[in-house]
Amino acid sequence: MKRVALPLKIVSALLVLGLLALAYSYFIEPRRLVLNEQTMEIAGWDRELDGFKIVAIGDIHGGSHAIDEEKLRELVKLTNAQEPDLIVLLGDYVAHGGGSTPDNVHRIKMPVETIAANLAGLKARYGVLAVMGNHDDWYGGEEVTKALRSVGYTVLADEIFRIDHNGKPIRILGLKDQLHIETWKKYSDRLKQVIARDNGTGPMIVLEHSPDILPIITGDLSISPDLKLILAAHTHGGQVWLPLFGTPIVPSSYGQKYSYGHVYENGVDMFVTSGVGTSILPFRFMMPPEIAVITMRSGG
Prior knowledge:
Distance between the termini: 56 Å
Strand content: 15-25%
Number of strands: 12
CATH class: Alpha Beta
Low-confidence stretches: none
Number of domains: 1
CATH topology: Purple Acid Phosphatase, chain A, domain 2
Oligomer: single chain
Largest sheet: 6 strands, mixed
């Protein structure tokens, strides 16, 4: 079969478009910070809790491409302007300078004390809750926890934080990162033990770094019938979204299934944020850094 060569003008145009896209994905999009406002209609959500507003921030990766101290302060300012009821930080505050291999886990691009100092000042009606991510645990979860607590934030590690909103209870369950759990059964059993130790009532919102916990929970709904929402990060939305192809690379065992946005599976809602920083590659394309502003309402 005879090969048909593309006209030189088309080849040149495609090359220029590719270079422009590459430049945009390196110089422009990683420096953006957008508000992603979502109204989540949750089945079984108490109408008296309607309007409860959560700001979710994930994968800050301080010191990664375009995430300097000024950007962290901008993040604080823009978040506070939303006047949320609750702010949740979903892990991966540090960025590794030499990868995540055993020899490099303690090389990070910005000191944890600097990250925490520039994140200080976040304000919400019921405070700021945080969980650890895999990069934090690789570096040293205790050190990251200490730094965040030093600026007044509550770090949860398999713990429940209780809120009384308009006279109604809400429970926030902050979990350790599931990437370090050996089996699903161990993880499921651990969740049940944490919840069993709590005598509270009311809807439950789970904070976890990775969205891959959703099949564990939906596969065993006896974990808690009060669970209404999971908030997760970790995937960065794939960092790159391509028309027709979607997100080519997603750090999830389920590919693009839980890569970004609102997911509903077996009676459980989940929202996965694209996060703020970058990891491995310093590019973002059609998946900008975001602050997720989630307003809860009854529905389904």
